[in-house]
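Quick one before lunch.
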Amino acid sequence: MSVTRREFLRVSTGAGTATALGGLVGLGANLGPARARAQELRIRDTTTVPSICPFCSVGCATLIHVKDGEIVNIEGDPRSPHNAGTLCPKGAAIYQLHYNPNRPTKVLHREPGAREWEEWDLERAMDRVAELFGETRDDTFIEMLPDGKRAMCTTSVFALGGATLDNEFNHIAQKLMRGMGVVPIENQARI
Ligand code: SF4
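Model of the iron/sulfur cluster complex:
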């Protein structure tokens, strides 16, 4: 198929899309075989591991393709009765949980009023979090309500779990929080 630049732009715009893909489709190109071939190459010689998207309580089923011990692709599982192979934009980006060069890998701390971030090692950061948590909890802990009812809690600390934490971690985390008297305990997967 021979297409001039002018024809390509005319059809792209006429079809209401400015993408190259839209232009090719508008000119009658059948992209089905190329798309199928690209899909096939992406997962060739991989092992497929069924899993679940961790981001929300819908729990869409996924297929993880692994090659030489490395995840090379994650997509929706077409066998799943409730997501039928589809994933929302968040789920479609799960691959980036494993590989994302933009993810910060160091703890950065900025003193109140400071303009610059300082790099902390994880141990130091965890100690500081534990220290602030303990102080806040102790300062705000309510043993007894004014009417004499026993409360034994603080509402000044809020626990929010991340969607990628697994059930076991969440179980331990909520036990710890309840043991410390924290009342609001939530997980991003439910939000
Ligand atoms: S975040 Fe999206 S893909 Fe993941 S379980 Fe929820 S709806 Fe499904």
